[in-house]
Every structure is written in C-alpha cells, then in structure tokens.
C-alpha cells in the first residue's frame, strides 16, 4: 500500500468522524485577576458578605480587611449582614446561615467571598484572597437602574451574557450606608479603641428584594443575549434615611457560587462594564 493511498484513507476517515463529532466546547478566557481583558467580556467583581454585629468586638477585624480591599481595587462589593442584639439585625438571616454553616451556630465574625468561600482568618492578612477573585473576563455582566420617588422604589436589573449559561439565580439586596452607631472592638484595629463611638456602618443589608438564596433565571442563556428583571416596592420601614439607599445584585450558579456582582447607588443609571 503506497503512502498516498494510506493518507487518502486517513483523511476520509477523519472527515466522516468529524461529521458526527460533538460540538466544540466554548473557548472561555481566563477570568483571573491578572488576565488581560478580552473583547465582549465583563469586569469581574468579588462579593464579600460580612456577618457582623455592633456588639461583636472581633468583627472589626473583618471590617478593617474590607477597608483594605477597597484601597486596592474597585472590583469589590461588600454587604454587612448584622445579627443578634443589634439595631441593624437582619431577621431573614437563617437561610444564609444554613448555607454557610449548616447544623452549626453562627459564631461571629464570619465572612464569605462569592457567597460560599471562607475568607481565611485573619482576614487583614489575606486581602489577596479577595483580590484573586476579581478580574476582567466574567462571562456575564450586570447593569442596575433605579428611581426612588414618593417612598417607592423601581429597580431594573439587566444581565447580559458573553458565554452560554443555564441554572442561574439572581439575588438582589437593598442596602443602607452611613449608619452611625457605636462598635465594640476587641482588636488592635482602629487604634484599639473600645467601644468605637460614632462608627460608620456601610453596606448594611436592610431587605432582600429577591429570595435571599436567589430567584431562578428560567431557561438557558446564549452569548449576546440579555434579560431584565424589574422590581417595584416601597422603601422598607427599617431604612433610616432613603437618601442613603444602595443596591447590590449578583448572579449565582447551581452551586451557589457568585458568577458576577454589581452595586449601585439609588437613582443611578448604569451601562454594562463590557470590554471593548
């Protein structure tokens, strides 16, 4: 058998095999902190959920670490979920507690990155762990648009896709900033003052607009498509000052891990953070 005949058979075989081959898997770029931005993908932010309390003297350790994250990146979104004998206690904390610590007591401080990843203690020494979850190439982006008028909130959350997804859920939080109240402090952070008078509590969870574990985004979503979810509801009674309202919205996958997150002030009209 000569070589030309052999190679002819080989290429015929490969052509027939290729016709029945499965679809090629998407060529998904790296979304690491240092990966260069790829056109069409989105800025990737990290969600920090801080389980805290004004009475919790060791919770200032996490608060200080979050401050340090914000000095190093604009790709972080923080949510303070207060618990216990606290003026900002969030009554709906139980589903989250069961998610992060099933069958265990919620001993504070606790902090999670992208909902389920334990932020290694001491958190101020592990700021890089949070930074490593940011990047330039998320497969989906979010844009928030809101109005607050006559005590009513109208909020649109639009999600745009740069790759194919299914089995997603959307979580939307209403937060309040600039809440002034004392903070117990058993650490050396914040100059070791205990209690810290007039401590500014920001990103405080006031209401989960969706189910706190997420509302399902029904169906599958393909590259280039988008979906908008609209919400209309009164300003919650526990909000001290409607001028200090902000929002956080994030998408989680079937494992409750955050795919991407975005925050917005009230009245803000956002465009997508999409790479050119």
TrEMBL record:
InterPro entries: Ig-like_fold, Omp28, Thioredoxin-like_sf. Keywords: Signal. It comes from the Bacteria. Residues 1-20 form the signal peptide. Pfam families: Omp28 (PF11551). This is Outer membrane protein Omp28.
């Amino acid at each position: 058998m000569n070589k030309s005949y052999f190679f002819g058979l080989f290429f015929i075989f490969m052509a027939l095999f290729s016709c029945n081959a499965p679809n090629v898997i998407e060529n998904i770029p790296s979304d690491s902190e240092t990966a260069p931005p790829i056109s069409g993908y989105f800025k990737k932010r990290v969600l920090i959920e801080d389980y805290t309390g004004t009475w919790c003297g060791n919770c200032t350790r996490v608060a200080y670490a979050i401050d340090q994250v914000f000095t190093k990146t604009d790709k972080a979104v923080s949510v303070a979920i207060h618990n216990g004998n606290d003026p900002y206690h969030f009554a709906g904390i139980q589903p989250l507690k069961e998610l992060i610590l099933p069958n265990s007591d919620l001993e504070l401080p606790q902090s999670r990155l992208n909902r389920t990843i334990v932020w290694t203690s001491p958190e101020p020494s592990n700021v890089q762990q949070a930074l490593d979850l940011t990047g330039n190439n998320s497969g989906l982006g979010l844009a928030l648009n809101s109005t607050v008028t006559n005590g009513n909130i109208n909020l649109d959350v639009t999600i745009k896709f740069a790759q194919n997804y299914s089995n997603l859920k959307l979580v939307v939080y209403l937060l309040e900033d600039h809440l002034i109240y004392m903070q117990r402090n058993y650490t050396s952070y914040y100059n070791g003052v205990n209690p810290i008078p007039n401590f500014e509590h920001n990103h405080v969870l006031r209401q989960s607009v969706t189910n706190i574990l997420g509302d399902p985004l029904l169906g599958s979503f393909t590259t280039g498509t988008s979906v908008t979810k609209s919400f209309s509801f009164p300003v919650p009674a526990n909000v001290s000052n409607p001028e200090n309202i902000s929002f956080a919205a994030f998408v989680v996958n079937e494992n409750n891990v955050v795919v991407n997150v975005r925050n917005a002030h009230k009245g803000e009209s956002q465009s997508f953070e999409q790479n050119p």
